[in-house]
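Methods — Computational structure assignment.
A single polypeptide chain was analysed. Its primary sequence is given first, followed by the predicted tertiary structure written as C-alpha cells.
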Amino acid sequence: MANIAFVNDEFVPLEQAYVHVEDRGYQFGDGVYEVVYAYNGIPFAFEEHMDRFFNSLQSVRIKPAYSREEITSLAYEALERAGYSHAQIYYQMTRGTSKRNHPFPDHRVKSNLVITVREASTFPQERWKNGVFVHTMEDLRWGRCNIKSLNLLPNVLAKQKALDLGGFEAILYKDGYVTEGSATNAYIVSDGQLKTAPADKKILPGITRMQVLKLCRELNIEAHEQPFTLQELYEADEAFLTSSGIEVLPVSKVDNKLIGTGTVGSVTRKLQLAFRQLIADTCFNRISR
C-alpha cells in the first residue's frame, strides 16, 4: 500500500508529485476540488461528489480536459493502486499552466487535473460519542461559497483560530445568522425539529448534508432548510456538524456555553446511526466496482 498521485497525465508516488510553478491553481487559487472517502475500498457518494465538481467547474468557467468518465476511471485506478481500504481521495482541476496574468489564458491552454489517494485518518471515537467544542466567528469569505473553490484562506484562518481557542471547529455567521463551519455544514435541533442554513450562495451544498436531509425524510424527522441565528444556536437542544470526513459529529459546547445538557441528543444520535448504516449498506454490503 502506498500514497498515490495522478499529475501531469501519469501516476507517480505521492512524494514525487509536483505541479508547474505557473499552474494557475498555485498562483491564483484558480480551480476547484473535491474530497471523497472510501470505505472497504469503495468510494462513498462518488457520483454526488462528481455532480458538484462539474457544477463548480461550470460556475468558474473551467473547461475540463478530462471527461467525467475519464476522471472517474482515473480516481478508481488511483484507489486500486494505493490499496487502502479506508482512503481519502482528493481531486482538483485548475485553469492550467500559463504566464501569470489575471485574465483567462489562451483557449489552447488545457486544464490541469491532480488526483491523490492516501490512507484516511482514523477519527477519534470519543468525539462521535461525546461531541466537540466549537467557537463562533464572523464569516469573512467571498460571496460564492456554493463553489468548492481552492480559495480557502478565510476558512484556514477561522479553523486555526478555533483550534487556538481549544475548539474543534469555527462556526461562521453573517449578519447574526449562522452560515456553516469552516469545513463543515452546521445544524441545530429544537423541540425535535432540525434546522440548517439553506443551500444558497452563502454555504457549500455538502454531500453529507444532502444525505442527512434525505435520512430525515426517511426517519420522519422534521427538517427545515432555513436561516437560524446565533441566539437560536446557543439555545438549541442539540447541535451537530457534518462533512465527508467527520460524518455526523455532535456539538456539546459553543463559545463555552453548553448545548442542551451538554450530551449527545436523541435526534443527533439517530442520524449518526442511520448515516453509519448508509455507509455500511453502500460500501460493505455490496460487491465492489
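Note: Residues 4-119 form a domain with the D-amino Acid Aminotransferase; Chain A, domain 1 fold (CATH 3.30.470.10).
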